Amino acid sequence: xxxxxxxxxxxxxxxxxxxxxxxxxxxxxxxxxxxxxxxxxxxxxxxxxxxxxxxxxxxxxxxxxxxxxxxxxxxxxxxxxxxxxxxxxxxxxxxxxxxxxxxxxxxxxxxxxxxxxxxxxxxxxxxxxxxxxxxxxxxxxxxxxxxxxxxxxxxxxxxxxxxxxxxxxxxxxxxxxxxxxxxxxxxxxxxxxxxxxxxxxxxxxxxxxxxxxxxxxxxxxxxxxxxxxxxxxxxxxxxxxxxxxxxxxxxxxxxxxxxxxxxxxxxxxxxxxxxxxxxxxxxxxxxxxxxxxxxxxxxxxxxxxxxxxxxxxxxxxxx
Amino acid sequence: xxxxxxxxxxxxxxxxxxxxxxxxxxxxxxxxxxxxxxxxxxxxxxxxxxxxxxxxxxxxxxxxxxxxxxxxxxxxxxxxxxxxxxxxxxxxxxxxxxxxxxxxxxxxxxxxxxxxxxxxxxxxxxxxxxxxxxxxxxxxxxxxxxxxxxxxxxxxxxxxxxxxxxxxxxxxxxxxxxxxxxxxxxxxxxxxxxxxxxxxxxxxxxxxxxxxxxxxxxxxxxxxxxxxxxxxxxxxxxxxxxxxxxxxxxxxxxxxxxxxxxxxxxxxxxxxxxxxxxxxxxxxxxxxxxxxxxxxxxxxxxxxxxxxxxxxxxxxxxxxxxxxxxxxxxxxxxxxxxxxxxxxxxxxxxxxxxxxxxxxxxxxxxxxxxxxxxxxxxxxxxxxxxxxxxxxxxxxxxxxxxxxxxxxxxxxxxxxxxxxxxxxxxxxxxxxxxxxxxxxxxxxxxxxxxxxxxxxxxxxxxxxxxxxxxxxxxxxxxxxxxxxxxxxxxxxxxxxxxxxxxxxxxxxxxxxxxxxxxxxxxxxxxxxxxxxxxxxxxxxxxxxxxxxxxxxx
Lengths: 319, 553
Fold this sequence. Notes:
The complex is a heterodimer of chains A (about 325) and B (about 550).
Chain A: H1 3-33, H2 38-43, H3 49-59, H4 65-77, H5 91-126, H6 131-145, H7 148-162, H8 178-211, H9 215-222, H10 227-235, H11 240-256, H12 259-264, H13 270-279, H14 283-310, H15 313-316
Helix pairs in contact in A: 1-14, 5-6, 5-8, 5-10, 5-11, 6-8, 7-8, 8-11, 9-10, 11-14, 13-14
Chain B: E1 12-25, E2 33-46, E3 50-54, H1 61-67, E4 76-85, E5 88-89, H2 94-101, E6 106-109, H3 113-116, H4 123-133, H5 139-152, H6 171-184, E7 189-193, H7 201-218, E8 221-226, H8 229-235, E9 238-243, E10 246-252, H9 253-258, H10 263-270, E11 287-296, E12 301-311, E13 316-320, H11 327-335, E14 342-347, E15 350-351, H12 361-366, E16 367-370, H13 384-396, H14 400-413, H15 430-443, E17 448-452, H16 460-477, E18 480-485, H17 488-494, E19 497-502, E20 505-511, H18 512-515, H19 522-530, H20 538-544
Parallel strand pairs in B: 3-8, 3-9, 6-7, 7-8, 13-18, 13-19, 16-17, 17-18
Antiparallel strand pairs in B: 1-2, 1-4, 4-5, 9-10, 11-12, 11-14, 14-15, 19-20
């Protein structure tokens, strides 16, 4: 690996870290702007001025905001996300299992949706403007246009209630056998797949169509390659950068944007956890989850950037 | 090799009969209609022979060449006639039939190999792809053959050049790799589509010689498509002249260039030299470039080294050199687009600000530019009237009737007339577009117009017209030109003084008659001797007489 790539990659990572720091400031500032503070939330109705003052002293809430920010940040960096107000439990511990559940669901949704979207995109280009293209585009568009909760309920209605193939509530627990776990996530994973499929498929189609006008595609056609081979071997590798970008955005959505789907299927993931604690006004939990979501988003986008850099032969093999 | 022995191969390899090709066009503001690109053209090509197809752009040369592979570019459809290759009508073979012959019986070499190679794959993978696809050879055999071809085409480091990516190899080398790619599957015929047109004149000669040797040694037949009669005369056995999709004349190479029978062929053979009397340099130049050094990348790459030239009022300084020699950079330094690192530019006795942003509107008005690609230098959504009227508004504050009158005047100056005022660039021919760009530059009443390869993208006859127009305008308006070009024939027609540039330096500078009078320095000699002459056997003579290698760009 040569130096220009390393420099670019290092730049991207440094930028990502900087961005994450900025986001942490925003999250902290945002929760500061909300009326009331943690002491008030903890004591609730039973607050007296004296007990409030005591608790504020105890929690260090009288320190200036920037000191509290750095105390919080220091905790986050060392893995201490604080204590949930509602349950008095350590946030890092409760998030651990749920994050894993969310990643598990996102992983399987991605394993199905990414290859499927790319293959459908290739097929759409191969039969562009024909029946197959229109069918693929139409179905994909329809599945994106339907709100995810509606898709969720449709799936539950048909596959859980009518046909009873899969459970309608995706309960998972520690030590659950792999097969049962897969059956439990089948419906939410399908719902997620349908939501992200169209975006990736259409981007793949557009990115490849963009390079189909190139002279090297003509060269490939004039070698006698079949239409699909021309697309797969000669057009696709040159369209990879925008495709990676949109794939990563959708992967981020699979982790960060699953809130609604998790709630519908009562799946014990990050989204559910977040919704629960927002309704309880549990600020430390919201801060922690927000920061994790931001980290996932930024991390995946860094990976997309780096992958796009590496996919460029001009950067990979300088003159 | 694969088919040898199975069937007696006919002596006539390709027999095109009454070919007719149509395409649907979408003119702006009109209903789509079909136009005829190729009209009733017949030709035959014997095994191992080279037929040159020649004509201006739009003559249907490439379309005919590609029809031998059953390929229609951009919506072209073969609507009539027969294309008989190796004894069968390929048009009846359908898609499967086309795929079997493409890359196997007929291969294609494109004008710009730099664009025709896939940037994502290594050269070797692309070179052997067709041979593997059609089962002509195993990978090991095909690679061995490719390396032998690289050697034959005198590519540097033939063992390893296949491991490179297209962007790691120069344009002239890529063109040779593409020829090797076409030869690798041992086809019966190759379609060369302007294979040297995009190259520097000094590189063109190398590639041309390599292609000629490869054709001779492998015994492959070829359709050689070009607009340059002097080039095709070096490689073709026969030449076919085409115009507007119709056959004009077809004959042996010697007959076409020595005894053309048709007026159009005669015009093609005779053009280009304009007798231009060199003007005596005035006493005082109005623009002086003194010891200018300019760099890209913050001083990393020196593209201009200590350049000094003068331009006199109403005269033309031609800057000649191959790509990468710094010609266009000199223009960028003068216009302030690339502020020089050292040196100065004096205009009418005062120093011009280095940076474009620091110059006054009056300075900007005095220096105008015309570019090589007229179509990308104009806003496609503006009419000719708006395009030419813009500098009138901007520099002189002209409005309404006054402006329209001046636009009409300018249109007459460029020999186009009032009727064009409401047309869009897409409705103009290449030559007309360049004329509109000239009118736009002229509208500012500049002292100097910088012409950056303004005739390079045009057909010879059209370019001839543009040069004549520029000379006439110089007489009438007294405007000076800085004329950047790689084409020495153009230089002879228009220049009063010449600066020859090589790797960022001016290697020869003076009045035209001095610069073009021997003895020459090695580079000027290479440049002059590389310009193809319409003479059979010129190529061999030129290669033999060379004193230095070309840079290979």
